Amino acid sequence: MAKKSSAKPLKWVDQGSTTPPEAVPALSDAVYDSELLRLQVELTKLQEWVKATGARVVVIFEGRDGAGKGGTIARITQNSNARIFRVVALPAPTPREQGEWYFQRYVSHLPARGEIVLFDRSWYNRGGVESVMGFCTEAERDLFLQQCPVFEEMLLDDGIYLFKYWFSVSEEEQERRFQARLNNPLKRWKLSEMDLQARSRFEDFSRAKDLMFVATDTERSPWIEVPSDSKRHARINMISHLLSQLPYADVINPPIELPPRAPSTGYVRPPLDRYTYVPDAASLLVEKTPETATNPLKKKNVRAKRSAESK
């Protein structure tokens, strides 16, 4: 069974200040990789426990753009069973969905027995981006803040485990990550028109968050802050906390022994030239050396090496 973590909680919270949290010691590659692997092993145990017991788990990831939510979700699901861990990242509502009860589009994505659903942004869009960017009225936002604690109480009363994480990033670090995305072809897609507009409204989002927390940070469904100026620390801290809050046990079946293969019955494979194969692009790379291989990330305005925080 998971044990409560004895680690001290990080006190810095994102209130729109330009002052970053106290510097945290950097994690070496070896220490970070080792601890992340250990946590991922525990996540597989959690996965099998959820499957065996029929537990239902909802994990909400909220926070500013560039705060590290997606990277943390990727590490959680890296070695998971997609039939048990589901990631929900909904697009903008359709015209029909705009005419529904606000929570209705999210209800269909809640977990069935034996499932863990990770919401990459959630119903809290209404209290955050929709409110700040003018996609909902003040009355609609106020109704959401009134109904949200009741909605979450219903989920909890029905036996769903609900966790809400807010990833906090300083204004300086967010700007650094936005600038890095501009020149990185692997991450440029993360910069949307919405990100560019939100970039100039850092304090507006802080005010919206403060208002949202006052209404929805309840005893049964609290918000958990994840300082994320250090992505590595954020991932380790968030995953460790999640594991400490669930009463999972190691129910993974012991390794099985593979029986001997059945003897051949005389099957003869058709000629290989009967099939259509993918072109062997990999063989063209055999003669290339690291010096001659092209790296699209190594351009004039891109660092040759990723920093430890980008890994």
Describe the structure.
- By secondary structure, the chain is α/β, with parallel strands linked by helices.
- It has a 5-stranded parallel beta sheet, sandwiched between helices.
- The longest helix is centred in the first third of the chain and has 25 residues.
- The two termini are 31 Å apart.
Q: Tell me, what's the shape?
A: globular
CATH class of the domain at 29-244: Alpha Beta
Largest sheet: 5 strands, parallel
Helical content band: 25-40%
Distance between the termini: 31 Å
Strand order of the largest sheet: 2-3-1-4-5
> What low-confidence regions span 5 or more consecutive residues with pLDDT below 50?
1-21, 300-311
Under the CATH scheme, the architecture of the domain at 29-244 is 3-Layer(aba) Sandwich
Radius of gyration from CA coordinates? 23 Å
Structural class: alpha/beta
Number of beta-strand segments: 5
Named CATH topology of the domain at 29-244? Rossmann fold
Short description:
With 311 residues, this protein is α/β, with parallel strands linked by helices. It has helices at residues 29-53, 69-77, 95-98, 104-107, 129-132, 138-157, 171-182, 193-198, 202-216, 231-244, and strands spanning 56-63, 85-88, 115-120, 161-168, 223-227.
Protein traits:
311 residues, alpha/beta, Rossmann fold, five-stranded parallel sheet, 10 helices, 5 strands, 36% helix
Q: How are the SSEs placed, and which strands pair?
A:
Blueprint: H1 29-53, E1 56-63, H2 69-77, E2 85-88, H3 95-98, H4 104-107, E3 115-120, H5 129-132, H6 138-157, E4 161-168, H7 171-182, H8 193-198, H9 202-216, E5 223-227, H10 231-244
Parallel strand pairs: 1-3, 1-4, 2-3, 4-5
Helix pairs in contact: 1-10, 2-10
